[in-house]
Amino acid sequence: MPEGFTDWGIMYDLGYGVPQDYSKALEYYQKAAELGDARGYSSLGVLYANGYGVAKDDAKALQYFQKATDMGDAEGYNNLGLVYAKGVGVNQDYFKAITYFQKAAELGSARGYHNLGVAYKLGLGVAKDEAKALRYVQKACAMGYQKACQPRQHLNRAIRFSQVLPRGQINS
């Protein structure tokens, strides 16, 4: 089961019940990806996007996120949206970012809803709409994404890549 390899990768990535070890996380994510797990690809992208245990490589991150989206992974779409929102290895394009965030949300990503909320709050690729922003972050909160549960505090900040793209892709 490739999903099990991704779960092991997350454990080593974040140090859940085991000593944190990025090289082991990388190994498990690679194995999961080789076996066809989209979360494995997305998690590999996060390692490369942030330089966790590997040399930061925007091109590899983009490649892994794209592979995850090709497989229909909601978090892959969210991560690809973040790549375009921040212009990481690509030209910054808020319109593309919004498209990917919307697809992520449609596929059930709380982070996708949250990032849509941030985009509407700040007017990134869409017209500013505080009511819509609040609805999106409330939806993300209801789905269990804790960072979205304090929208006044969180929505007043710009999208920060490492903040909304945590290691391990754990939906907390």
TrEMBL record:
Report the EC code(s) recorded for this entry.
Answer: 3.5.2.6
Q: What keywords appear on the UniProt entry?
A: Antibiotic resistance, Disulfide bond
The GO terms describing molecular function are: beta-lactamase activity
Q: Which InterPro entries match?
A: Mitotic_Regulator, Sel1-like, TPR-like_helical_dom_sf
Picking any one GO biological process from the record gives: response to antibiotic
SUPFAM superfamilies named in the record: HCP-like
Q: Which reaction does it catalyse?
A: a beta-lactam + H2O = a substituted beta-amino acid
Region forming the signal peptide: none
Write the protein's name: beta-lactamase
